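Entry 14. Two folds queued back to back today. First construct below, sequence then structure tokens.
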Amino acid sequence: MNEQLRIEHLSKSFLVNNEKLDVLDDINLNIDKGEFISIIGHSGCGKSTLLKILAGLTGYTVGSVKIDGKELRDSADSAKCCMIFQDHRLLPWKTVRQNIAFGLYEDDKSEENINSYIEMVNLKGFENAYPHQISGGMAQRTAIARALVRKPEILLLDEPFGALDALTRIEMQKEVLNIRSYNHTTMILVTHDIDEAIYLSDRIIVTSNRPAAIKKEFKVELSRPRMRTDSDFMRLKSKIFREFFDTYSK
């Protein structure tokens, strides 16, 4: 694989009520093209801030972030990345098709192009429905299609399934893997769900409490498709579980 993303000695702090608040602490991470990386850690430790830095939504204090060897400085440099949030953030006055096409250049708004992404996320037949007329899972698939239609090389997923019921969440996880196999997009997922991380990922990063630092990395060497009840799956889950809670009990 070819290295696509290199993060070196990355730290981030905010000024809150005139006091310095450290959020990220000396993050070092290299990600190859086409990899699926999950980052797990407790709420408020800085995971989402890391994704926002990669998306160009916020800057960083110290360190270096390079995408394909080019230093990331602002949102213009992060054009290869696209972020999907926990809530779908669809425009309620636009249909599924219009939401997917929103923000595209006219040359990219061809019916054939939009239809290919509608079919990719299994929304054919619902393209003219409005957000209030579809389920939460369908709305999130629309948000994923809206991101993918821009052909990002790196997809940033900030707990995109957190608000879904358990069965819909499992279906969405399968959908993401189907999409990944379709266009080989690099994916970085923030999640609290260890099962989800193992099911989806090539590598899992466990972070410390705030300020977030990388405490442990697990390589997921399980064959696909993965079964959550498989003994190797459960064994890895137990290792990550112990590391996760040992980290936060200190």
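Second construct, same run, same settings:
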Amino acid sequence: MERIFEIIETAIGFSRSVQIRIINTLIILLVLWSVKFVIRRIIYRQTEDVKTRFVWIKTLTYIVVVLGLIMVGSVWFRGFKELGTYLGLLSAGIAIALKDPLTSIAGWLFIIFRRSFSVGDRIQIGDKAGDVIDIRIFQFILLEIGNWVDADQSTGRVIYIPNGQIFTLPLANYSKGFQYIWDEIKVLITFESDWKKAKEIMLNIAKKHSEHLSKSAERRVKEASKKYMIFYKNLTPTVYTAVKDSGVQLAIRYLCEPKNRRGTQQAIWEETLDSFDREKDLEFAYPTTRFFNNPPEILK
């Protein structure tokens, strides 16, 4: 064994102590990798729930990385003086050269401890929106929604966003706090239509598809009010009336779950179309131009 150490020292220039440290480091990494591999297999066998499995594996990864840093650090830095000197020499250069990565690490710590969002939440940061599918040390990953898809549904693209952007861009979380969103569907009918009947029909439709959420929303509002200044007096669906250039506008305002928005819209629209089709005195309006032709007036 001594002969091997001498050959390596002669060929590469590594002293015996450095070679031993390298061997110990490789052993530590191999042991940690083996432990992680075994535990991963156990997790996959014990649970089939994707979210639970993801959380366990992600937590395992963090634990293994921290243990690895501590154990490898103990191999290479025997004393606090040596470690302090080394870090002191590198800190200034690292702070300048790795500004963006360090900002991303700070953003990762902020996300983990402040719980701005977590895996499974639907968020929008800047002009990007999607469902969070992973949170890493330097970036978090979204499954994009919207963009060329004219609805809150997935485009199929995966977006990688640096964690540091959480400090510079506005963040909207669909899933935290109140956990519901208000949506509106606007229907325009002609001035000649019976708008009161139309309003009553639309209100009944809105209640059918969203009133069941009101009680649950009340509980969520009470829970959210403990942490945020959130309060609503009325959580039941309603229909607002307004006069526009081409007719009377009736706007349904209702609660829905963020990920069911498009499906709820479709159900309300389809029932509205069917209901209006059965009524002879209800007609949809659209932008039109009317001309007045009075020959006697023209001759004058």
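Quick look at the second one. The longest helix spans residues 16-46. The CA atoms of residues 139 and 161 lie 5 Å apart.
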